[in-house]
Amino acid sequence: MRKYSGLLISLAFSASVFAADADSERLAQILAAQPPDVQARYEWRHPQQTLEFFGIVPEMNVVEALPGEGWYTKILLPYLGQDGSLIGVDYALNMHPKFEWVTPEFMAEKKTWVSTWTAEAQTWAGENGAPVSAFVFGDMPESFKGTANAVLFIRALHNMTRFNADGAFLDTALKNAFDILEPGGIVGIVQHQAPEDSSAEFADGSHGYLKKSFLMKAMQDAGFEFVAESAINENPKDQPGPDDIVWRLPPSLATSKDNPELTAQMKAIGESNRMTLKFRKPPKVGY
């Protein structure tokens, strides 16, 4: 919660206050200060428009799912500022072994991820950045419940969907998101989008893509209300076939690294077609 004139204002009301407090100039300056390799992705990731669409503003408490090496984290920390906070969340520990490439060394690192990632991310915050904490899905501290203003799932839902039948990983992540949010809190989703007429097998997350209709239902089943969608991150050139994976496209180019002609074709498409969806946890009734 934020304080105004010494009073605590619930998020159900403060959502309109946050919208008025959006600091586009500050965010633009932070984005302009990022390294060239990060800025090269703006054409496809549209971080300013995306964060503003989700209503992310300074002083918020934001949860970032799968922060990885910190592409968005390094933007969010200085933007949220000392009076905000950032909570990183990784996959449940028992989900990692389901990837065929996972090694014992990788698992050993993941066992200490909460402490090691928090320590590293805090070094990214700089002098005036937001404080950092972390947990893994399925092991959220009780003290975190009802404390967040927003949860961001940016290209974070396909693998949890892929393995959901064998561990309820997506279900658990959405429940954690619901529980950690204050009433009226926002969920922002950016996700590789499968064509609606694609097969269930193609759109189960294993190819990296999910259907919009699937996510709409999953979010509403988890108790969230749909707020809005945006075309910010759409790319109509990305028209995957039944055997295509999202990682064929830049920046991974996983299927064409040894084929210059195919690499050129993938670069001409660009990064994936992504849906951008905004949901909220219902406000308290009668507030």
In short:
This protein has 287 residues and is an alpha/beta fold.
Kindly list the characteristics that best describe this protein.
287 residues, alpha/beta, Rossmann fold, 2 domains, 7-stranded mixed sheet, two-stranded antiparallel ribbon, 12 helices, 19% strand, globular, disordered N terminus
Write the layout of secondary structure elements.
Elements: E1 2-4, E2 7-9, H1 11-20, H2 24-32, H3 36-39, H4 42-45, H5 47-54, E3 61-65, H6 73-80, E4 85-90, H7 104-110, H8 113-124, E5 132-136, E6 148-154, H9 158-162, H10 169-180, E7 181-192, H11 212-221, E8 225-230, H12 260-269, E9 274-280
Parallel strand pairs: 3-4, 3-6, 4-5, 6-7
Antiparallel strand pairs: 1-2, 7-9, 8-9
Describe this structure in words.
The protein is an alpha/beta fold and about 290 residues long. The protein folds into 2 domains: about 1-235 and about 270-280, Rossmann fold; about 240-270, no CATH class. About 35% of the residues lie in helices and about 20% in strands. It has 12 helices and 9 strands. It has a 7-stranded mixed beta sheet with strand order 5-4-3-6-7-9-8, sandwiched between helices. Strands 1-2 form a two-stranded antiparallel ribbon. The chain is globular, with a radius of gyration of 19 Å. Residues about 1-20 have low confidence and may be disordered.
Mean pLDDT: 93
Helices, by number, come to 12
Which structural class do you get from the secondary structure elements? alpha/beta
Most strands sheet? 7 strands, mixed
Indicate the percent of residues in helices. 25-40%
How many β strands by DSSP? 9
